[in-house]
TrEMBL record:
Keywords: Aminotransferase, Pyridoxal phosphate, Transferase. One of its GO terms (biological process) is polysaccharide biosynthetic process. The keyword Methyltransferase does not apply. Residues 4-233 form the NAD-dependent epimerase/dehydratase domain. It comes from Nocardia panacis. PANTHER family: DTDP-4-AMINO-4,6-DIDEOXYGALACTOSE TRANSAMINASE, TRANSAMINASE. The keyword Transferase applies. InterPro entries: DegT/StrS_aminotransferase (IPR000653), Epimerase_deHydtase (IPR001509), NAD(P)-bd_dom_sf (IPR036291), PyrdxlP-dep_Trfase (IPR015424), PyrdxlP-dep_Trfase_major (IPR015421), PyrdxlP-dep_Trfase_small (IPR015422). It comes from the Bacteria. This is Aminotransferase class I/II-fold pyridoxal phosphate-dependent enzyme.
Length: 717
């Protein structure tokens, strides 16, 4: 007896085959999504796994002798609903399963193919050697999978593809959308038997129980009898559709036969099953007439109200599963999850890092200096200090400016904690000013209202890569004698009017974290328009000493150094700079791709009820580091966190940028009132960041938009 893994085990054929395999004494692992119901009864040798074959645990193949791959988006109409899904299930996932089965030592792989591979060729009964002419996505996937399986075959891994005729009959997973079953159902329910066109199209038919017998014979047939890459037709009888209608009319003489419908099926083929019969002794035990009577009896035993239930109609059920959110049991938009962010790293970066490793100089050195010079040139600034993080750059800026205890720094609450943390680290007081509800950037009016005699600096954050109103902020700073330090973590390459961000204030800090538009893995940059501040920041970046390691240990370097003032360990090493050196020349390309993706999101999501799109200022260059949507809670019955869970269930990685800092425990414990900043408070419960990065394809963007639409549409008030 064998250990057999069956995919599609709960389907029309699987629900008949699995009990027969158990009766034969085999042990069965039954894999299926069971969207159409739990069709298999418990059995001591049956192990049921509820899974999609695209994501099933391949560890289930351990010690398996035979795989019977029935799982498919089955029949031609269902396959047309979502071609990408059909190809992924019927072809790619089946091939991946076969590859894993061969690696696991499985000895035989039996694939459920279809006679539909012949397309339209009814001149004579077709043998397995006849030309193939698939007319549908479904049939095309079967041809491609047959070819791949033949290429995988070895003497220890034998493959068999059974080209089944159109099935009919009764199964625990009843189907009323197969030709024989459909005509019987319609004759009984509607008193009408509809024939497409003139009904002369040929079709081979096979009772589901006879199909199960054919698969059992594939399990039992010795290897030496199987031809290499075996492909067999399996058929009960060939009938023209008009002949089928006549047989149904015999059972239902009162039913009216109609023909010449607008829908004309181009498929027409007669099939010869002699080769399989000769090899295995297969003989069908059921005629089409038997099946008509059998289906009639099954329908009579059912509640007529149940005849139209989606579980009996594959296209209807598959369409429902596609539209139902995955979190509620539907099929996800993506079975291979799309990460929220992925850096674009090329061969140049890899080679440069390797060169650094081989050079013997890993810390701050010539490549860091080169990267600083490249950044200064790109931004059009005089001074650029490379750091080990954007946080370090912000901290250096505050420290170099002499901001400390007793001083206040105004910043936005919609930001990463680092923005406010560094204010705390220098001993100053963080003062939050509310944000503009549409851009989520700091509101200049709120900044003005927050200025006191103790205010020393304003720290705007260019949210998502869109510049704040730097004219208004600059005017306020000039009027009140304040320094502006920009948190430009998202905005490397952004413009305010004609000026690059970095030219618009005294100091600006950038981040080169792994998810940023330009990455060094970890890293940052502080740009400064003042010579004295620049020198102090550079000294503070490395302990406060007068010479870095390169100037101490390089040929001709000075051995001695001096401690100028206590500093920090914020220097960027050459290992990080090696990545940045090759990222920077590609930045314009990266930003252009992000912009195209953001534009596509705008178009695809514009009409989704309950979804607010990000606002873009005119006259600025947005770097599109993030794409942040906002949920309209008056239109949706789902909150933001559940919305995120639902998108992740669809295979979409998402984030939240950000939950306002004034709502975080640290600040609440120090007297912050959630209602003090209403725009930030409200946004914190509504915003969701969608994936946006150059490595995404247009199809990836469309998948994300489809998932957002699907979840939002399913949760309208």
């Amino acid at each position: 007896m064998c250990k057999i893994l069956v995919t599609g085990a709960g389907g029309f054929l699987g629900a008949v085959l699995v009990p027969q395999l158990l009766t034969d004494g085999h042990t069965v692992t039954a894999v299926d999504t069971y969207w159409f119901g739990d069709t298999l009864a418990d059995h001591p040798r049956l192990d049921i796994h509820r899974a999609d074959m695209r994501t099933m645990d391949l560890g289930l193949l351990t010690d398996v002798d035979v795989v019977i791959a029935l799982a498919a988006i089955s029949n031609d109409p269902a396959g047309q609903l979502d071609p990408v899904w059909t190809i992924e299930v019927n072809q790619r996932a089946t091939i991946r399963l076969a590859e894993a089965a061969r690696a696991a030592g499985v000895r035989r792989f039996v694939h459920a193919s279809s006679c539909s591979v012949y397309g339209s060729n009814d001149t004579m009964p077709l043998t397995e050697d006849a030309p193939l002419g698939p007319l549908t996505i479904y049939a095309g996937t079967k041809v491609s999978t047959e070819t791949a399986l033949r290429n995988l075959e070895t003497s220890l891994f034998r493959t068999v593809s059974l080209r089944k005729a159109t099935l009919f009959g009764v199964s625990p997973r009843m189907r009323l959308d197969l030709a024989v079953n459909t005509m019987t159902h319609h004759a009984m329910a509607r008193g009408r038997i509809a024939v497409d066109g003139d009904g002369r199209q040929w079709r081979p038919f096979l009772h589901v129980a006879d199909a199960a017998t054919a698969y059992r014979l594939c399990v039992e047939t010795p290897d030496e009898l199987l031809p290499d890459g075996a492909v067999f037709n399996v058929v009960g009888e060939n009938l023209a559709i008009c002949e089928l209608a006549a047989l149904v009319a015999v059972e239902f003489p009162a039913a009216v036969v109609t023909s010449g419908t607008e829908r004309v099926d181009a498929r027409s083929y007669r099939v010869d099953g002699a080769r399989f019969a000769a090899l295995t002794g297969f003989r069908p035990a059921h005629t089409v007439a038997d099946g008509i009577r059998e289906v009639r009896a099954a329908l009579e035993a059912m509640d007529p109200d149940d005849w139209e239930h989606p579980r009996h109609h594959t296209v209807t059920m598959i369409d429902r599963v596609r539209k139902l959110p995955a979190i509620d049991g539907g099929a996800p938009v993506r079975w291979k999850p799309l990460p929220f962010a992925v850096p674009t790293i090329g061969r140049e970066e890899e080679n440069e890092v390797l060169a650094v490793l081989r050079s013997g100089w890993l810390t701050t050195g010539p490549r860091t200096k080169q990267f600083e010079a490249m950044c200064a040139d790109y931004l059009g600034v005089e001074h650029a200090v490379a750091t080990n993080s954007g946080t370090g750059a912000l901290h250096l800026a505050l420290a170099a400016a002499g901001i400390g205890p007793g001083d206040e720094v105004i910043t936005t609450p919609i930001t990463w904690p680092a923005t406010a943390n560094v204010i705390h680290h220098v001993g100053a007081t963080t003062v939050f000013a509310d944000v503009e509800p549409d851009t989520l950037n700091i509101d200049p009016a709120a900044v003005k209202a927050a200025i006191t005699a103790r205010t020393k600096a304003v720290m705007p954050v260019h949210m998502a890569g869109q510049p704040c109103d730097m004219d208004a902020i600059g005017t306020l700073a000039a009027d009140h004698g304040l320094i502006v330090i920009e948190d430009a973590a998202h905005a490397f390459g952004a413009h305010w009017g004609e000026k690059m961000i970095g030219q618009t204030s005294t100091m600006a800090a950038f981040s080169f974290y792994a998810t940023k538009n330009l990455t060094t893995g970890e890293g940052g940059l502080l740009v400064i328009d003042d010579d004295e501040l620049a020198e102090r920041a550079r000294v503070l970046s490395l302990h406060g000493i007068s010479k870095d390691a390169w100037r101490r240990y390089a040929p001709g370097g000075a051995v001695h150094w001096e401690l100028i003032e206590p500093g920090f360990k914020y220097n960027m090493p050459d290992l990080a700079a090696a990545i940045g050196i090759h990222q920077l020349p590609r930045l314009e390309e990266f930003i252009a791709t992000r912009t195209r993706h953001a534009d596509l999101y705008d178009r695809l999501l514009a009409d989704v009820p309950g979804i607010g799109l990000p606002t873009r200022r005119v006259g600025v260059r947005h770097t599109h580091h993030l794409y942040v949507i906002a949920l309209d809670q008056d239109r949706l019955v789902i909150d933001r966190d559940r919305f995120i869970e639902a998108l992740r269930a669809e295979g979409i990685g998402v984030g939240v940028h950000f939950i306002s800092l004034h709502l975080q425990p640290y600040h609440l414990d120090r007297g912050m009132d959630p209602d003090m900043l209403p725009a930030a408070r409200d946004a914190s419960a509504r915003i969701v960041s969608l994936p946006l990065y150059p490595a995404m394809t247009e199809n990836d963007v469309r998948d994300v938009a489809d998932a957002v639409r699907k979840v939002a549409s399913a949760h309208q008030r």
